[in-house]
Amino acid sequence: MTDRSLVNIAFYAALIAALGLVPPVAIPFLGGVPITAQTLGVMLAGVMLGPVRGGLAVCLFLLIVALGAPFLSGGRGGLGVFMGPSVGFLIGWPVGAFVAGLIMRSTRDMPVLVAAAFAAAVGGIGIVYLFGIPGVSYMTGITLPQAALGSAIYIPGDLVKVGLAAIIAQTIARGLPSALVSRNGS
Amino acid sequence: MTSIYLPGNSWAHVLPASVKLLFVALMSLILFQAESLLLFIAALLLAVACYASLGNPGLKRLLGLKGLLYIGAIILAFHAWTGTMFEGVTMILRLAAMILLANFVSITTRMDDMLEAIQPMFRPLSWFGLSGRKPALGIALVLRFAPHMLEVYAALQEAYRARTGHRNSWRLIAPFALQSLRMSDNVAEALSARGSAGGMADHLQKPRKNTGNGQ
């Protein structure tokens, strides 16, 4: 691992942390559900860094949260959050970033905007909920459909983030192409 | 801002981090296997007693977690829907006990000590020719980058407000991304110029406490 890889990984881990400090936005037409920006960082890590480095960036972020940094949205942190009902989502984050990175890498011939939107949707929503919903069900004893229903209120907000991730990836690909690591070299 | 650690000298602060981590691991093993309501109530009382033993600051931290009540109410509502109220109460008590105990360990352990305690977990990195200190360097970089990013964004916001009178816009995303990415480029170059992260492998054997710069 080169210095640049390490710095890239730390950069996206820090971005996820910084996005967690952004106050949640309650969007009125979505029933006032608070939307946090944090998963945008998870999507971007995978889309921008590719599978391995993107996944590692999310792992580094989770490690720092486990050590006690209050970097999860709402100022949460420490070991307690890994015992909570939403632990499945946290486990899904690095996997989601990994899958998003894989998709970015295997769609090199597609425009960045389209590929990034696809990668962020599959990795950042599909995979994350695939881990998150059974996690909620296991931790709280409610049924899977109930857990899915309870989590579904966040999907509109996640779709907004998919759009943002795609626009940001496109912007960076134009302004600083070397930063789109997922498509450079191996 | 960078830690939920609650400074102090209580019995819980004095215990080694590794002991506290083992305690959490053991408790989660026991509580997630068990189905006994009494055991969960006992664990919850133990957790509350732990916070109380820290005095007022500890109790304040406990009150700071009252957002969990809201989540508990939602879980209970779902259980009421399927007619499994008793199971719901049991599950919530178990969750509450686990969260409170794990969080208690976090608020009484410094991040440095926590990192030191899990350092053996990174030893396998050396099998791949990587320094076991790389995670520590990564953590230090993250703790430095995160506030810097917020500064960059705040500066852009201020300039934007001076120009337009509006506070925020999607137009700030591009300059923010490019400016902060360039900053990370500079850091990568500076790191290489100073002998690179790989050079840290040489210091692996020295029992030097080098992780404190993250605090």
UniProtKB/TrEMBL annotation, chain A:
Primary location group: membrane
Top-rank taxon: Bacteria
Pfam families attached to this UniProt entry: BioY
Membrane topology: Multi-pass membrane protein
Chain ranges passing through the membrane: 6-30, 42-67, 79-100, 112-133, 153-173
Cellular localisation: Cell membrane
Keywords, comma-separated and alphabetical: Cell membrane, Membrane, Transmembrane, Transmembrane helix, Transport
Keyword Transmembrane helix: yes
PANTHER family: BIOTIN TRANSPORTER BIOY, BIOTIN TRANSPORTER BIOY-RELATED
Stated family: Belongs to the BioY family.
UniProt-recorded name of the protein: Biotin transporter
Originating species: Roseibium denhamense
Lineage summary: Bacteria, Pseudomonadati, Pseudomonadota, Alphaproteobacteria, Hyphomicrobiales
Automatic annotation (TrEMBL), chain B:
Compartment annotation: Membrane
Membrane-crossing residue ranges in chain numbering: 12-31, 37-55, 67-86, 92-111
Lineage: superkingdom: Bacteria
UniProtKB keywords: Membrane, Transmembrane, Transmembrane helix
Topology of this chain in the membrane: Multi-pass membrane protein
Record family assignment: Belongs to the CbiQ family.
Name of this chain's protein: Biotin transport system permease protein
